[in-house]
Structures are given as structure tokens and as C-alpha cells.
Amino acid sequence: MQIDFDKSGGLVPAIIQDEASGDVLMLGFMNEASYRETRRTGEVVFFSRSRNKLWKKGESSGHVLKVRDVRIDCDADALLVRVNPIGPGVCHEGYRSCFYRSLDEGGSSRPVLTSTFAPDEVYQKPIPPGKAE
Amino acid sequence: MQIDFDKSGGLVPAIIQDEASGDVLMLGFMNEASYRETRRTGEVVFFSRSRNKLWKKGESSGHVLKVRDVRIDCDADALLVRVNPIGPGVCHEGYRSCFYRSLDEGGSSRPVLTSTFAPDEVYQKPIPPGKAE
Questions:
Q1: A38 in Cβ contact with A44 (< 8 Å)
Q2: Do A72 and B39 count as a contact with CB atoms less than 8 A apart?
Q3: Closest chain B residue to the Cα of A41, Cα to Cα
Q4: Chain B partners of A71 at a C-beta cutoff of 8 Å?
């Protein structure tokens, strides 16, 4: 069956779920090229709407998402990608899941997960003294 | 915190997850009005892109989604709505989850869930003989 990329201008939402725990880790978008690249490599590649290009999850952090199964919904316009996530978390703010905050009815949010890594250590690796490149 | 409805033309994707089982049941979109209505009623209301109006999940089937928790992602442009789903399934094709098919690398799909109800009985209730209204 065909994924309906046309419904939303070439993109489909892709829910990322940890296959082992069932936790929903994040949501990204895929275009046809990123979906093909995800399949070819066995690791999740999104299309970044803000940067307007393919974005391999984990390219800087090493926290790649190994694809275990891809599910498609009834009207073929959304994907559920079940993964084995490598590393302590997918969220650039240092959590296992990007959905780490609960939102109450009044609009206040509070973290419901505990931080699993220090983003500064993962996303910025300053050049050590003496190492010019 | 504010939900970023502006990023995608007034809509955010809302992942629906069964709080008890962890299963991802479906994905819909919410605009600000549907989010407010979801909060006011405690049951999920989407915005239907095809019908261009609010769409209360379960309005015809009775299979409403009772909201247990709403999570927001790190950049505030996606929601994870954890629910108690009423009834045997959310999918109009008769399954517990809309993501009932696995998609292989060649593009073939196969059901990985078993059907839990007969859509014809839920979505079409023909008037019994003798009952004119």
C-alpha cells in the first residue's frame, strides 16, 4: 500500500514509540525521501520543516533510532515507527522522551519524567585544549 | 506554557495513547478550539481537516476517548493525549488501533492486530423493519 504523502504537502507525521517499553518518544515528519532513507538505513530519518532538509535523528548526539517495525494507519497518512532507541534519551533537553511535561487545564506544565542526560555534554563537545581541530 | 498552534497553520498533531496498555491508538489534529473543547468536556475532540470542522471522536460510534493526561513536547508543537478509550476500538475499520497494519520495506502491508468489532454494526444502524423513524 502507498503512504499518502500528498495529503499534507508531501509530509506525514511519524510517531516514534519505544518498542520495548511502549513509551512514545517523539513525533517528527517524513517526506518520501526521508522515509526511503529510513528504510534503507534501518535508522530513523525525518524531514526537518524548519531546516527544510533531511534530518537523521542522532546525527550529532549518536542517539539513533533503530527501526523495528513500521505501522501505517487506516487512511495511510500517518506512521507509527516502533524503535530501539540507542542512548539515554531522544530529547535535546535531556529526557528519554520529548513528551516529558504534563499540561494541565489551566495551561501550566510540569515535568513528569526525570532527566536522563546532560544535553550540554551530548550536543556540544568543546574542542579540548591543544586540539585545534 | 502555550501550545504552538501557529507552526502548522493552526493545527498540532495529537497522538492518542491508551494510558493502561501504552498502545498508540490513532493520530488526529487539534486546533485551538478543539483543544479547548477537549479540555472542557474531558473527551477528545479533533479538528477534521477533510470536513473542516470540529470532530468529536465517538460522536457516532459512542467510542469516546476519556482524557487522562495531556503531555506536550519540548518545542510545544505536538501533543500526546493519554486516554481511557471507551468501547472495543477507535478504528472505523473495526480495530482497537488505527495502526493495525505493519508496512514492510517493499510496501506490502499486513494486519498485526485482530479485529475487535464489526464496523457495519457500529457505524450503520439500519432502521429495523416496521420502525419508520
A1: yes
A2: no
A3: B105
A4: 99-103, 112
- B20 touches A at CB < 8 Å: no
Instruction: Give pLDDT tens digits along chain A (133 positions).
Output: 899 999 888 999 999 999 999 999 999 999 999 999 999 999 999 999 989 999 999 998 899 999 999 999 999 999 999 999 999 999 999 999 999 999 999 999 999 999 999 998 888 655 444 443 3
Cβ neighbours for B58, distance < 8 A, ≥ 6 positions apart: B43, B64, B65, B86, B87
Q: Collect all residues of chain B within an 8 Å Cβ-Cβ radius of residue A7.
A: 49
DSSP secondary structure, A74-118, as one string: TTSS-EEEEEEE-SS-S-TTS-SSS--EEE-TTS-EEE-S---S-
Neighbours of B30 (CB within 10 A): 24
Distance between B128 CA and the closest CA of chain A, angstroms: 30
Which ipTM score applies to this complex?
Answer: 0.91
CA angle A74, B92, B54 (to 5 degrees): 95
- The residue of chain B with its CA nearest to that of A26 is B73
Q: Read off the pTM.
A: 0.92
Whether residues A103 and B1 touch (CB distance < 8 A) is answered with yes
3-state secondary structure chain B: CCCCCCCCCCCEEEEEEECCCCCEEEEEEECHHHHHHHHHHCECEEEECCCCEEEECCCCCCCCEEEEEEEECCCCCCEEEEEEECCCCCCCCCCCCCCCEEECCCCCEEECCCCCCCHHHHHCCCCCCCCCC
Distance from CA of B72 to the nearest CA of A (A): 5
Cell numbers at residue A35, please? Answer: 522515509
